[in-house]
Amino acid sequence: MTRLSNIAGVILAAGQSSRMGRVKQTLPFRAKTILQWVVDNAIASSLERIIVVIGHRADLVEPAITGRDVTVVINDDYRKGQSSSIKAGLRALPEGTGAVLFMLGDQPLVAPDTINQILNAYESSKSPIVLPIFNGKRGNPVLFSRETFPGLLSLTEDCGGRSLLKEYAGKVLELQVDDPYIHFDLDTDEDYRTLLKLETE
Question: pTM for the complete prediction?
Fold first, then answer.
């Protein structure tokens, strides 16, 4: 796999799974856990390095990804919302990182090819933000270039990086992808049941 220099992946997996009521990162699917799928898809892509930010029940979550070629960061401030994990991931980056692809730890079906399409679109356009579109709707993961890092580091509470879209209006690259799973994450037990139905398909 050819790695794209200076582009890192940050997997946000520190949340409390409050709507699920259990630690969704560790739920099983096709012989792996949900987070293992996210991590392995990232590893199979062209990302140069991968950082996994965990927090809630880190004692359960971390062992599942031990041995994989990733850097694990424990976010003790995870109760402050997603912005705290974004900041923890950014602060763990090596100096000189040019861009970051933020991935959600509960999106196990986003394909490595989709990740690579986003990375390649950034490499060719150098847009400050690249986000995927399927059927006219924005999804995840989303790439942010280095020029957006100060704005990301100023985020507060449960505010994701998409709050920067207005600031960079006109510069955001909306990339059409053929991957419906950029819209599919696991928030509820119903979402998990929907995922499990795919095991037999």
Answer: 0.94
